[in-house]
């Protein structure tokens, strides 16, 4: 049974489409969790592509059984194609590009086999035949895994069918409307903001006037200890005050399970035990405009207003916002284009790549959503989670626009400064800057060793700025209190895990001056 052409084709199809299948079949549900579009827009094309590849290969393999010469050429093509797919699948699943040396060796081996076959066809043909006989049962066992992945993908897709259906937000009662006399609390999280890069050792020639101006009337923490290095773990930790080192979303998007590092166990993330519930209890109106994490799915019951976005290319070169028909074409086109580019047979497009364009789109949408909140004084407890300075670069600091050629982290830092100046302008325009509390921070620092130095987009400027890929784990952390007019600096180590505790003190009016803030930081029991 494992030698039937349909089974062999199923195994080959599994290898060809493994990357897109894994994204749907994974019990981690990472693709579902961060998906902003309808699930059907990316799931149905995967199933259609798998069915099409399987059907075509089944027919070809069945035809080849009765046509030996065709069968020989067919299996030669399958041998080369599937071998290359296994190699590329390995690197894609490990989130790294295929090294040039691997491409060169593979091409050399293929050429050697071809010329050997041409020169000694009669001798090499039995070897290739035995290789085919060995490959058939192997593909049969791969087919069993493929069937399991298909079944699991269909099941998870069904569970996620209402993934981004709007969930009801918190309904504020009329008698709990926020007081116009109370100062606003605005939490700005710049993703991957490094203290070292902003204040301690700026890249030569990089000017950050808004951050410099802010430091003159704010408290700068010089030694913040991050709660982690992954945004999806850090934000729930900051909101609850518990350190989480793992997240496990359901296929439906919620509830979210988090792994409590201190307790050593998994637990359900409870929005009622976050800083946003604390703000509601204190009479504040809560709002988020945030990136990457699906805030409107996991926190709706404690938010009066919510917007989140995370435009991305999903495996198979598909876009969640596109139609099923459009996405169905992309895996085929993507396979052909990537194969051609791997051997330099197809030129790369000029201009920003899709990830850069989507990152720019995220920024623009979040800036617009944030402006709506900043211009509405009734929104008085706000989280603005911005997708910068997180690489890749989306801004040209030299020209001051989004037309980029080789953007990097340094450019994104300059954009952070532009955005901070914009926030200040908006608050000054509506007269709430002086009376507002701003907590500006990074969720983690610049992860040069973990990710970015391995990227093909890594630049010489970034190497110099990072002190030859030296990881400094201190994220930026700045607090501007209402009416603060003098600078302050806290050099003692400060656990960012205490962010919820800090907000609770601010919500209750227990920290009003830089001196009280310093006392609270340094005199923790």
TrEMBL record:
Signal peptide feature range? none
Which sequence ranges are marked TM in the entry?
41-61, 73-93, 105-122, 134-158
Q: What is this protein called?
A: Sulfatase N-terminal domain-containing protein
InterPro entries named among the record's database cross-references: Alkaline_phosphatase_core_sf (IPR017850), Sulfatase_N (IPR000917)
Q: Which UniProt keywords apply?
A: Membrane, Transmembrane, Transmembrane helix
Domain named Sulfatase N-terminal: residues: 185-447
Task: List the Gene3D superfamilies.
Answer: Alkaline Phosphatase, subunit A (3.40.720.10)
**Quick check: keyword Transmembrane in the entry?**
yes
